[in-house]
Amino acid sequence: MSRILWKLLATTPVLALGVGSGVYATEANSSLLQLTPGELNSAPTSLTTLPAQPVVNLAQNLPTMRSAPSVSSLEADPLAGTLAPAPTSTQTQTQSAVGTRSRQSIPQVTSVSQLSDVRPTDWAYQALASLVEKYGCIAGYPDGTFRGNRALTRYEMAAALNACLDVVSDRFATKEDLAALQRLAQEFANELALVKGRVDNLEGRTSNLEATQFATLTKLNATVIFNTSDILSGQVANPPGTGPGGSSLAGRNIVDNTVVSNRVRLNFDTSFTGSDLLRIRIQSGNVVNYSALSPSGSSGGILNASGLAGTNAARLAYDGTTNGFELHKLFYRFSPVKNLTVIADANAGAYEDNMFTFNPFFQSSDTGALSRFGRFNPIYRIYGSNPAGATINYKFAENKEAGTSADFTLAYLGGGTNTASFNRSPANPNPPGGLFGDSFSALAQISVRPIKDLALGVTYVRAFGVDPSGGTGTSGYTGAANNPTGSATATGGVGNVTSDNVGFQFTYKVIPQFTLSGWAGYSSVNQSQGSNVGRNASLVNWAITAAAPDLWQKGDVAGLIFGQPPQTISTNYTVNNGVTAFNMYHLEGFYRFQMSRNISVAPGIITIFNPNNNTANAPIVLGVIRTTFQF
């Protein structure tokens, strides 16, 4: 028997039954006659996806078309228009059988060259040539065209199969062949029925999913972090100029109990146009803040005989949450015109969420660096607590082929809890503030990618009433990076302090398995209101990061971070006998194991040398294991 017939029968159980029995009324093949046009056009063609789907696709199974794309990837079925033009609506209503189609109006061609719109470069050219010239079962339109991109109707499908089967059976099939096929069909009748049942089950499950889906426009995704951490060695980070125990911290040791905590985020992402995003995030957690002076994290000072690290330099990347669920994030992102993106934050606005921070393997709190400082330049954290605002990004140059681009970003975040810390008084009822007399920060950034694997950025932030260290670096004493002019209040703010901050960032993919990134930041801080008017200070920080992805398996990342968190390097007043020392260093190493598509485990070590710029302080060594589940 001809090889083409075996191919058709092997991939089309319906044809096997039809040829073997001479009728089309069996249970297995009757589903073909019951298919609607939409089901026929959408039926899968890959045998690996659905081995016994009763839909015929001649083109896919011809020997000369093994590399042809599937029907789902084309605008129309590759066999569309093989017999005759599609009937008009009137013709469709009046036709009751395939036989009503007049063969005289559809001349049989003897060579593929007679079809004017079929070229040797077409992907199905060889298959058409074989069907036309070898088997003589494919015809063209009266005008000598083939119209290969036209959709296939059920009438044309039936006529095409009938014509080809007639030719094959008349020329190549014997009675013995047909009898053998009939026996095979009977032998595998149970298997065919089983496959049909599986298809019906899948269709039912699909219909149920469509009927009970969460929302047509909204997707729910979640991230859960389980944290295990412990301070392996060290003492409470005393201010500069004090001894190992400190004058007021004498006898205090760091709490070295192993801590197990978690953070849960539920993101409801809605898109109305396909290119926009409305995100509502619900969050809960209890991750310990290692900058606290006591296990309870009280801001009132020393309450117990022991405490935590006592410096912001030891904070984790995902700390600062509470046990109760809260609305953590609400923003809307859209593109009104090409190359322009606008993000409106209703609460919890964050620069790092709205722009590129030049540290791609470390910037995520879910899967990036373990420490707060190691994620990116602290300049992206200079904003108040829980602010609102807007970010605008415009890409003014791009060459996709060369991989180069340039864009400009403007952002404003204002309000939040820091407003309560302003030094208001009868003599100064309205201290200078943002658009609404509150704390604020305004950012401008230029990002350039001069070559495909290199990105450079310069960032400027002007802020008022905001911690210029971004919650990292030295802390807990007058002159520290989070309180450089000594104007911090009991609420944790920085009073009426104005700061001008500049940052430079870069990232360079040396090879696919090694990326080098880094940054440097400088802040000029001025006390513009209150009792310490005229005080000023300068802060500096820098870091180098190295990432090696896919070392052991795809998705793994080995990370190394070394640098100096924000520290005060100079002031115009004397404080704490050496506050200008610039000798605190941060060293972090971790390896993220990508256990599966949704689970990763990242053990690592964070070491702070000379915590809070005090050489008398022993290094603080923090061990961390972060397990992340993403759904």
UniProtKB/TrEMBL annotation:
Composition bias type Polar residues, residue spans: 98-111
Pfam entry (one): OprB
One record GO biological process: carbohydrate transport
Region Disordered, residue ranges: 79-111
GO cellular component: membrane
GO molecular function annotation: porin activity
Compositionally biased region (Low complexity): 84-97
Domain SLH: 111-175
Family: Belongs to the OprB family.
Annotated protein name in UniProt: Iron uptake porin
Organism: Pseudocalidococcus azoricus BACA0444
